[in-house]
């Protein structure tokens, strides 16, 4: 395959997978490949936690349960030891039976905290079992329903997750966090229209929710609504706190991809420059900027960027090697081009 065609194909794949979270989106950062927000308050606070792979990442409670628990979580599930911090209920048995509002609020917070501890330990079944028990005596507690829905999402039981989220927002229509979680679940199910509706609802209730606006922009891209996506990326970039460097870099990166899709290469290049300036270790930004330089026939700058991406060595480097091979070949360095092409074939197993 022609190297430039290969690079353009990778751009399309990258754009089409934006809303499949990573909420993600899926969505990556500078210190770890995928970041999952573990506390529901983070989902709508606006700034996503920084992680590190090739790009500053997205999300905050991102796509709910985009993949099964890892081996560590599975082993934790089998471990019968109670997670540190879990309250065993003995104090409650000795406590008064008073049902005043303050006590109910404290009890709810404590119970949700216990369920969250199980979830964070990867022990989703135990968390759900605890929440089932609590919901028997308090079936209309929207917070318990939302937490159980999140646990079901982690197990990829999306039907049950949606049922709990939907009941939770019916009970409390102002619960923007749960709208975000439901929208992220729709992302996982590739239902971008429903995801966009939920992210829009979050923004109606909490206009400065960075995570929700970014997730909606990503869903717009996946749905092919590039103009809408650009509007959201523009707002993200203009309204992000000055100290939110990774988040701004990520938004610039994603907006640049949209510009590239629209063949607005000058604008794309400016945004890639901004992403690199804010996150100098942002591997994908160098790869992407090199791709633009290659299309503009600025071969030496393309080689420099692809080489920088390769030196960072944090992602699938096939696009960098393929792009550099094309640039080398364009300036007559066939030996270097052949070497990079061989590396690409090795990655592909051919």
Helices and strands in order:
Elements: H1 3-16, H2 40-45, H3 71-78, H4 90-94, H5 101-120, H6 124-137, H7 142-154, H8 158-171, H9 176-188, H10 192-205, H11 210-222, H12 226-239, H13 245-261, H14 265-278, H15 283-295, H16 299-312, H17 318-330, H18 334-348
Helix pairs in contact: 1-15, 1-17, 5-6, 5-7, 6-7, 7-8, 8-9, 9-10, 10-11, 11-12, 12-13, 13-14, 14-15, 15-16, 15-17, 16-17, 17-18
Description:
The chain has helices at residues 3-16, 40-45, 71-78, 90-94, 101-120, 124-137, 142-154, 158-171, 176-188, 192-205, 210-222, 226-239, 245-261, 265-278, 283-295, 299-312, 318-330, 334-348. With 350 residues, the protein is mostly helical. Helix 15 (283-295) runs antiparallel to helix 16.
The low-confidence parts are 19-39, 41-101
End-to-end C-alpha gap: 13 Å
CATH topology of the domain at 3-67 and 204-348: Serine Threonine Protein Phosphatase 5, Tetratricopeptide repeat
Helix content range of the residues, please? 55-70%
- Summed up, the helix count is 18
Annotation, overall tally of beta strands: 0
Cα shape? elongated
Report the CATH architecture of the domain at 3-67 and 204-348.
Answer: Alpha Horseshoe
The H-and-E topology, N to C, reads as HHHHHHHHHHHHHHHHHH
β content, as a range? under 5%
CATH class of the domain at 3-67 and 204-348: Mainly Alpha
């Amino acid at each position: 395959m022609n190297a430039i065609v290969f690079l353009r194909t990778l751009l399309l794949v990258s754009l089409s997978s934006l809303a499949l979270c990573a909420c993600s989106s899926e969505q990556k950062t500078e210190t770890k490949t995928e970041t999952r927000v573990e506390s529901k308050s983070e989902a709508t606070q606006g700034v996503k936690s920084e992680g590190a792979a090739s790009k500053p990442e997205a999300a905050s409670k991102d796509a709910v349960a985009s993949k099964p628990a890892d081996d560590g979580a599975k082993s934790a599930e089998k471990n019968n030891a109670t997670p540190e911090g879990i309250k065993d209920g003995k104090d409650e048995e000795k406590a008064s039976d008073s049902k005043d509002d303050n006590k109910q609020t404290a009890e709810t917070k404590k119970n949700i905290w216990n369920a969250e501890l199980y979830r964070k330990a990867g022990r989703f079944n135990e968390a759900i079992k605890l929440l089932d028990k609590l919901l028997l005596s308090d079936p209309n507690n929207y917070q318990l329903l939302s937490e159980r829905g999140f646990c079901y999402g982690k197990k990829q039981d999306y039907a049950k997750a949606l049922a709990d989220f939907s009941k939770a927002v019916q009970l409390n229509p102002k619960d923007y966090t749960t709208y975000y979680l439901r929208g992220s679940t729709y992302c996982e199910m590739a239902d971008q229209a429903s995801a966009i509706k939920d992210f829009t609802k979050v923004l109606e209730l909490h206009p400065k929710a960075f995570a929700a606006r970014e997730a909606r922009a990503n869903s717009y891209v996946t749905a092919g609504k590039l103009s809408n996506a650009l509007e959201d990326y523009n707002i993200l970039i203009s309204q992000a706190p000055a100290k939110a460097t990774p988040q701004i870099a990520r938004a610039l990166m994603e907006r640049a991809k949209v510009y590239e899709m629209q063949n607005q290469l000058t604008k794309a290049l400016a945004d890639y420059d901004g992403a690199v300036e804010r996150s100098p270790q942002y591997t994908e930004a160098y790869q992407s900027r090199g791709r633009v330089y290659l299309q503009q026939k600025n071969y030496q700058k393309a080689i420099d960027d692809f080489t920088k991406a390769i030196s960072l060595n944090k992602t699938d480097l096939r696009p960098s090697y393929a792009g550099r091979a094309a640039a080398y070949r364009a300036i007559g360095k066939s030996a270097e081009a052949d070497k990079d092409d061989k590396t690409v074939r090795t990655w592909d197993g051919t």
